[in-house]
Design a protein that fits this description.
Length: about 220
Amino acid sequence: MHNKQPKRSSDSPAALIAGPRIRPAQLKRLLHDLANARDDGLERLRSDYKAQLGHYSLSQLGLYRDELRLLWPRYPEGIPNDEIESYQKWLKARPNAEPGEMILNRWLSRSEVGLLAVWEKGLRELMPSRADLPAMLVYGCLFFADRLCYCENPKCSVPWFIGRRRDQQYCSNDCAWPAKKAAKRKWWDENRGRKAKRHAHSNQRRRRNRSIYLQHLSSSQNPEE
């Protein structure tokens, strides 16, 4: 029977906390890039985030990507049956829980480090290790939970995004432009019709007033004897 190897000092919670921390802006970018990664882009994603994702396989990254997308308000591919069954089982113990609770706790069960407690002067928080993807996903999704948005432009290539507000419909001005253009055209068509009607009514009124004026002028120039 083999004894477990002692952890290296560099793996201790204190050493992990003392290391470089991942900032919210970095987490935001990681969530965005992972959620929008295509199957043929996972290798590049792993290379771009080598420090955080380098030790994960492509199949693992694909699994985390698919689970991450389930937290967004829209899931165009349709929710897999096994996830629906898992959620129904979860609801038996937690009837008020949303799917995110199940997914985040699943990630924590896979985490090698978990969330680390930071207690410093003026700072009390939980933080993830930069090399622990499940913990980073849990922390990031809780941090941005109310701003997970899906771009309404059907041609958008990166529709999963974190918005400035929860009801943001488009990820960028470029994606919003077609809808704005259509709305302006609709407004123009509707108001141009109203303006044309007002203009025709005004012309009709002017013609009627002119006719009355001419009749009055004619009668004043040729008074009855």
